[in-house]
Request: fold
Amino acid sequence: MKYIITLSLSLFLLVFVNSCKDKPEVEAEPMATWDVIQQNILNTKCISCHVAGSSQANQSNLILTSDVAYAMLIDKTPHNTAAALDGYKLIGTAGLESLSKSFFWEKVNAPNQEHFYEDHPEYGEIMPPGAIPLTNGEIEFIGQWIVAGAPKTSEVASISLLDDDSYFILDTTFHVLAPPSSGV
Ligand code: HEC
Reply:
């Protein structure tokens, strides 16, 4: 009798220990790229202005809070008249060809700002205005998402891109031109 109890107890322990050991590690669900953009970028750097009822939201006709941001951006015509006439969408969904036709992208792509301001003075300011631009990691992350068709629910860019927190600084130093090798 004692033997049977000991045996069943050790069997129980064996099964119990094994069941713990075999349990697969619970992996965190990958977050949709759009959700990361909403939480890490829009919620922290944009919605102070782009929130329902603010004068800036009225001026830009753009609300970027999580309840409406995706719907307000995808395949929508910009409020900026010049950009609308130039055939931009706020964010297009045709992948690579949409990148250069997405006004949202133009507005956050700080490294491209010389072209932005010189060629399109009527496009308003780089966003967020007057402050530190989006980091190069954030810009790359958004760019890859647009190239992938700007999906709402899938993961299409590596979140590790956001580790790059360097950002574009406009070089305003005066460059002395090298003298021409011939002529004047
Ligand atoms: C300090 C307030 C402020 C902040 C912060 C801000 N914006 Fe704006 N945004 C504006 C104003 C004002 C306009 C309209 C004038 C302009 O386009 O420059 C605008 C316009 C825009 C437009 C153009 C909308 C259209 O249809 O013409 C986009 C896109 C935009 N913002 C995206 C962003 C994003 C993305 C962020 C965060 C990275 C951001 N904004 C942060 C004030 C702000």
